[in-house]
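pipeline stage [seq->struct] | target=ISNCY family transposase | organism=Sulfobacillus harzensis | residues=454
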Amino acid sequence: MQHVDHEQLDFLTAAMPPEVWTMPVELAAIDHLLADPAILAPLLANLDPVRGRPCVPAAQVLRLLYLKERYQLSDRDLIQEVSDSFHWRQFCHFGVADALPHPSTLTYWRRRLGPEGILAINRAVTARLQADKVIRGRRFRIDSTVTEANIHHPTDSGLLGDAIRRVTRRARRLHTIIKEAPVPVRDRARSVKRRILEIGKVLKRRTGEAVAEVRRITEELARIGVAQGRAVGRLIDGAKEQIAVLDQAAAHRVAQVEEALQDLQTVIRQSRAATAGERIPDRMVSVADPDARPIKKGKLGTPVQFGYKVQIMEAENGFVTDYSVSTGNPPDADALGPALDRHRAQFGRDPDIVATDRGYDSARNQQDCQDRDIGTIAIPKRGKKSGARIAAERKPAFRRAQRWRAGGEGTISRLKRKYGLRRSRYRGYDAVATGIGLGIFAHNVRRWAQRQAS
């Protein structure tokens, strides 16, 4: 039978002096908030109440996830810190003599919950804040940002080298478990490294001929990738002939090699399209994180960022009430309508004030806000403005809403600096979206606790 919380008090814990075991005010307020059954419900929905071995109680997992995102710790460091701290042990409902879970437990829970489970937890927190009348949904502001992927700066030659090495590494692992395998896959790491170093020497010339020379060397890398792909393809064909006698782990390795081979072919096509001067609409920028994409936000310091686009929606008092994560760079204007629909579903009403930057301006959005009977629509118009439009944007209500909207930049800055939204440590869309959701969860919970403490 699964347990919601760990409530049994061991003898050593009961014998501790109160001054050692009493939690700080902030942790005590967060512990009170996280005791809400509605917030624990998304975790319990992923557990069978009867079948299976008893796992770590959901209340303990949720508190461990909060501490991890609050202090930006790895799973291993988090377990070590909780083990060494009386306050953190009490906050996570572990006694002095209780054994802590293995760090991989948090990894399994993040995968089990996924983006949908973390989004459900955040919505439950928002519902609790609404029930406590901390937020009422009368104001609405939205802004977008980029969470960068944990990758190096992509180049065609670098991607080709990474893809070739990845295919070779996985193919060699597969080769060791095939009984009647063909000739071993050749390691082309030295050939790849020699050409990448040659590109570095060519770029020092800073002449027009250097660009053509770099494209020529990059094409040589592409040809090496094609040859390696053919050799690995023969290995996969030989492995599939034995697929009936291979165990599940071997079949999984075959799938991994096929995935790496497909990424290699994608990188080769991109490289040759760039050489031909063709436009690449959905460019892969990393074989380690294939879902990351280049995003242009018009920043002078970083004209192009590589990662995921995040929409942040806020209500009163700086609480994040909703968010969305997308691959690529979809227009901001397309996000406003769905965000207002989710706001209505969450609060049961449309906001009185909608404030955005000019990136969300469109005729459809302006008309949609008017149809919702929103009192103040503070969406600056793009392009040339008529006299009536200039007069409307100079009204005191519009200016007050825009000043309030500027506070959203501070929220995004705080999320980036303290809660891991600047650069994700995870790879893949599901893992990155889960990490972003956990960061927003930690932000909202801590902000609520600070208001309670003050």
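stage status: PASS
auto-comment: The two ends are 40 Å apart (CA to CA). DSSP finds 17 helices and six strands in the chain.
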